[in-house]
């Protein structure tokens, strides 16, 4: 390292000396110590350890730190004690090194750092910032990749690309973690040292340069006896040190053979009495040989418990046929249930391309809604003699409900009886009275557990009023009790 002697225009002192043209290297986002080998000052009139350096032109891409804090001056003692560092702070620099630098002035502190102090200029430290490969490649999956069944198509930068701030893109290597299931990837370029294409050989890795040069193809090879409509593989890319995340590469396979159109149909589920829009998630079709707008659905067998309707601005009309285009966006075709007490329905759909036709049955599952009121199927009154106890069974009193289990129907006593009392047999065989507000069920009636005992006057008609309920819907009714000798 050379030394530079500068003459200071002040007669009372010997000139100060300082090193010029020094240089240091620092790693990207790192720090390097400024040692006495980098910059050193000397003055015959002052203790060298007290010599102080002033940072006149600070670095643009970093900072001078003394004891870990930004500083604009430091002493030679700080340098010797290893307290002065240059820290790079401007972030990622990319592939190439960058240059930074700073100028220092040397003073011997004799004038307490006044402007007219003893300054030495021209000391320049050049800093070379070296790139560090610490960034993982960023992979981007682009536009949808499609291939015709049985053919192959090149994977271009429009489909997949990768970039790395500190690695040339061409050098990025991508590995296929999970291979496609309906085909394979190939590299059509010759192997190094060969002139023969590697077409037809499955590969497990490729570079971004291979993609850029159009050498990587997806081959749709598995199609005999099957009709794949999609495929995919999983890849990740590396710069040799850092790895990207795993990425899915989806592949759409377009059918190419001249066969019958395909119907895609899933089960329809809806609430009783409601309707559901028939759109492509429910009903879809495909035929590569015919434009989509020419595919027509025909309701070849209508549903028994509902209707297929076309909802128009003027009202709904029965739909006997409609095109695939009609249900692709904002479909106006619906299935409407007739609100009957049914758990399922079905209808048949035929899809035609004008030449070939295929047919499928659409299954409709109806979710019951408890919207029916219980009904009295038997309410014939009860003939009872004076002082007699008689069973109220289902030949006398029976309630039914179209959408509830009949045995669970409850009879809630709202009035009476006035000439006797209702009783219920308990599991122990004893009798308990059933009074106002209490209830008994159809199951108890069916089992012969409900009784009426007459203890009133002769010849007076008795009456019990009750609500029959399924827990949601109720029916108000009454049971007439006829006594012997009634007039």
What would you say this structure looks like, in words?
With 487 residues, the chain is mostly beta strands. The protein has four domains: 6-130, Immunoglobulin-like; 138-254, Immunoglobulin-like, CATH 2.60.40; 262-367, Sandwich (Immunoglobulin-like); 375-484, Immunoglobulin-like (Sandwich). Helix content is 4%, strand content 46%. It contains four helices and 44 strands. The chain has a five-stranded mixed sheet. A hairpin with a 2-residue loop joins β28 (306-312) and β29. It starts with a strand and ends with a strand. 26% of the residues are buried. Keywords: Glycoprotein, Repeat, Signal. CSPG repeats lie at residues 15-107, 136-238, 259-352, 373-469. InterPro entries: CSPG_rpt, FRAS1_ECM. This is Cadherin domain-containing protein.
- The gross shape turns out to be elongated
Number of helices: 4
What is the CATH first-level class name of the largest domain? Mainly Beta
The fraction of residues in strands falls at over 45%
**Rg:** 47 Å
Low-confidence stretches: 1-19, 109-120
> The biggest beta sheet, please?
5 strands, mixed
CATH architecture of the largest domain: Sandwich
Mean pLDDT: 80
Share in helix = under 10%
CATH topology of the largest domain: Immunoglobulin-like
The overall number of domains is 4
Separation of termini? 138 Å
> Strand order within the widest sheet?
3-12-11-6-9
Kindly state the number of beta strands: 44
The SS-based structural class is mainly beta
């Amino acid at each position: 390292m050379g030394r530079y002697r500068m003459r200071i225009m002040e007669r009372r002192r010997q000139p100060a000396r300082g090193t010029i043209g020094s240089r240091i290297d620092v790693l990207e986002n790192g720090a390097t110590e400024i040692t006495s080998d980098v910059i050193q000052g000397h003055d015959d009139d002052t203790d060298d350890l007290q010599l102080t350096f002033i940072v006149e032109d600070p670095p643009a891409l970093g900072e001078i730190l003394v004891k870990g804090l930004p500083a604009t001056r430091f002493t030679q003692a700080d340098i010797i004690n290893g307290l002065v560092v240059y820290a790079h702070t401007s972030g990622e620099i990319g592939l190439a090194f960058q240059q930074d630098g700073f100028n220092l002035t040397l003073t011997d502190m004799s004038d307490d750092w006044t402007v007219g102090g003893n300054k030495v200029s021209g000391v320049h430290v050049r800093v070379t910032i070296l790139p560090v490969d610490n960034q993982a490649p960023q992979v981007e999956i682009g536009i949808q990749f499609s291939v015709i069944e049985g053919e192959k198509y090149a994977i271009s930068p429009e489909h997949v690309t990768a970039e790395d701030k500190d690695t040339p893109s061409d050098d990025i290597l991508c590995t296929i973690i999970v291979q496609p299931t309906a085909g394979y990837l190939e590299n059509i370029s010759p192997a190094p040292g060969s002139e023969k294409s590697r077409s037809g050989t499955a590969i497990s890795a490729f570079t971004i340069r291979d993609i850029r040069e159009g050498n990587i193809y997806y081959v749709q090879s598995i199609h005999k006896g099957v009709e794949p409509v999609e495929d995919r593989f999983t890849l990740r890319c590396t710069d040799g040190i850092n790895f990207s995340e795993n990425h899915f590469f989806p592949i759409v396979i377009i059918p190419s053979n001249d066969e019958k159109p395909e119907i895609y149909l899933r089960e329809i589920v809806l609430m009783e009495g409601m309707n559901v829009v028939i759109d492509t998630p429910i009903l879809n079709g495909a035929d590569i040989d015919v434009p989509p707008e020419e595919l027509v659905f025909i309701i070849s067998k209508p549903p028994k418990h509902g209707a297929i309707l076309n909802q128009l601005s003027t009202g709904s009309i029965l739909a006997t046929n409609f095109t695939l285009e009609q249900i692709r966006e904002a479909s106006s075709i619906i299935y409407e249930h007739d609100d009957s007490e049914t758990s399922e329905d079905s209808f048949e759909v035929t899809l035609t391309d004008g030449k070939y036709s295929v047919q499928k049955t659409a299954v409709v599952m109806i979710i019951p809604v408890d919207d029916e009121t219980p009904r009295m199927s038997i309410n014939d009154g009860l003939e009872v003699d004076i002082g007699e106890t008689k069973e109220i069974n289902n030949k006398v009193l029976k309630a039914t409900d179209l959408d509830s289990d009949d045995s669970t129907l409850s009879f809630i006593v709202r009035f009476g009886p006035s000439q006797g009392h209702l009783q219920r047999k308990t599991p122990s065989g004893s009798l308990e009275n059933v009074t106002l507000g209490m209830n008994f069920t159809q199951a108890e009636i069916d089992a012969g557990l409900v009784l009426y005992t007459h203890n009133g006057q002769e010849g007076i008609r008795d009456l019990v009023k009750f609500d029959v309920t399924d827990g949601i819907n109720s029916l108000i009714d009454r049971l007439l009790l006829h006594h012997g000798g009634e007039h």
